Amino acid sequence: MAEQAATGNSGAVQRFLSVVGADSMVSSVWGYVDTTIKWCWIPNWLPSWCPTSQIQLQTAETKMLRCVDGTFSKQFVPISNANRLWTLTIGSDHAKHRTPIVLLHGFGGGVGLWAHNLDALSQRGPVYALDLLGFGQSSRPQFSADSQEAEEQFVESIEQWRAKTGLGSMILLGHNLGGYLAVSYSIKYPHRVKLILLVEPWGFPKRPDTEEADRPIPVWIKALGAMFSPFNPLAGLRLVGPLGPTLVQTLRPDFKKKFSSMFTDNTVSEYIYHLNVQTPSGETAFKNMCVPYGWAKRPMLQRMDKLHPDIPLTIIYGSRSSIDSNSGSTIKEMRPSSQVEIITIRGAGHYVYADQPEDFNRRVLQVCQKLN
Fold first, then answer.
1. pLDDT digits (tens, 9 = 90+) for 326-342
2. Does the keyword Transferase apply (predicted)?
3. Which domains does the chain carry?
């Protein structure tokens, strides 16, 4: 959710944090300074201050998935270094031969946020949704502080997961950070990818050199930023401890609306809360992959020429999103001999798959129909 938009500095950081509603607390301070200081003690004591646990996260996810009609299974898939990736599998038995769709969530997300999409997409064939390494119920190891090495850790975890699950090839559908990783994976393992679908992807353009000059940063924000720079982007949510669940409900009521056809209680906000107050492993890696204001240190547009030209690419944006869709047009221009399609979902914001799920599911299935 940290993709760059034309709405200015604060907007980029607010979208970076918007998944849990912590943007109003720490978005104004995290993105405005260089985050080079590290306080190693923070992750150790903050989670104990929060009313959460692995069991509570599991329970919250179970509630999120209770409206999925299809039969699905969940398991930990072991990868290297004793790590495990939490995986949900669903699909029609009569279409097992089709290339599976693999869902990669965005920053701060998890498999439960695909609740609107699992039944519809699985009518075509197998669907896998996994919690990325460092997020959700997956293992939360220590990532490298080097942005390239952290990215490679994410990519290798996906490849090891693929090998363990026995998938020969995949359709990768990634939202936000998941889109960035889908392309990074496809560059390294092109023979394993039949199609890429990028949904409101993060991390493609580079940070403009003129941004700060065009939009000066208030002194008070710089001062607060200097104080909060050692913290991870969602540290504010952990910092408030027992107030965290109420904070999510108060600051992000739109998430309840996105899933109002499924839930009338606080199921969604509780799930989002428990996802993001565990040990900040993937969160720390993501921060290390960013420069101030939420731009990627290693912009993906600079590497698109390394993506195999035979891999079709579809980019999906929401018409009401503040994300800058210019990257989609740039990719299309960069790949004149490749199949590149840009889709805009009317009435949808950044969380396209939850804002307009029926339209989103229909368009995804239309794109995938061209494959076996």
1. 999 999 999 999 999 99
2. yes
3. 9-368 (3.40.50.1820)
